[in-house]
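Reopening this ticket.

The earlier resolution said the output was attached, but the attachment link was broken on my side. Pasting everything inline this time so it's all in one place.
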Amino acid sequence: MVGDNLAQLFGEKKFPLGVFIDAPAKGIYQLKMWLPSLEATGENFFIVSHRPELVSEIRKLSKRPVFVVSDSEIESLANVTGLKTWIYINNSRPNSSYVRFPQFTHVQLMHGDSEKTASYTPVNGMYSKLFVAGQAGIDRYERNGVAVAKEKFVKVGRPQLSNLEVGASLGAKPTLLICPTWGGSAEGDVYSSLALTPQFVESALKLGVRVVYRPHPYSFRSAADLSIINEVHRLLAADNQLNLRGHLFGAAATDISEAEAINLSTAMISDISGIVSDWLFSLKPYLLVSMDHSAKVFTSRYPVAKGGLVLDSQKAKAIEEKVEALLQKDALLGERKIMREYYFEGPNDKDLTKRFVAAIKATLK
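Inline output:
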């Protein structure tokens, strides 16, 4: 049998929280980032998926009971002992099979704070509560013409950032984190700067800095993207052998956590990846690539861009100049402080999990 015996959910032991995940195996990171925060609530919870192949991956991350539930069994979950709240971590279509039960509170966490369309889709209006990091997470709905009742939003910060170092460490080795998003994240929008990463790397190598190359996990599913990734790996491997700079790529870059990658780095290049908001928390400089808008339009559309440099992809000849500017001078720290408060609110709280735990417990009342 794949998964645990469903019968244990209907005994004397109460399970106030249910967590639903529907994602390919590469998407298991979406659950991984929230598990420590869910554990911090001290509440019993269980995990449900429709995908048998996820069970072994989930068991590597958690000792909580895991169930593979067919469509015909969903109805029975309405009778789980003590169940009050369902948690969702992405915009998977099967979520609606659970949200249809009105007796529960349905909470959408999402798996990152980003400016992608998934973070303000009208579909999110079906949930009882939308947990967002800060005011920016609320405003992006209105800014994009999506009406969602204000009482649905709950600001919880980003508990995942508790291990993030703010500012570059004294004497830190100049290190450039390059982390483009994947190409299939939204229909009609072009977000991914992956195709430009060989040029970013070549510019960084000319400047003699270390590179941490960390494409989105889903990029490895595309043959075209994988070809670009392999090209970058060859560049970094050759420079490691020649100059011993200690570039991190492949497993060396993906086996470490996002927080570890950010802490290692002194500057970042990305696009509309979810890591941008998390990087903002560190207050270190960044360069964002606009793939389908002018730099001016991009900055007005995405407030986080005000805290960093912006490269219009149509001006690729300026890449080397932009990378040099990113690594050698920083005149935007003041803007980043303003943006960090807007995106997170209270980023200097000692316990970043506190608001999340309180918000979850409020749903159980």
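Reporter confirms the inline version is readable. Residues 109 and 207 are 40 Å apart (CA to CA). The chain has two domains: 6-157+349-363, 163-344.
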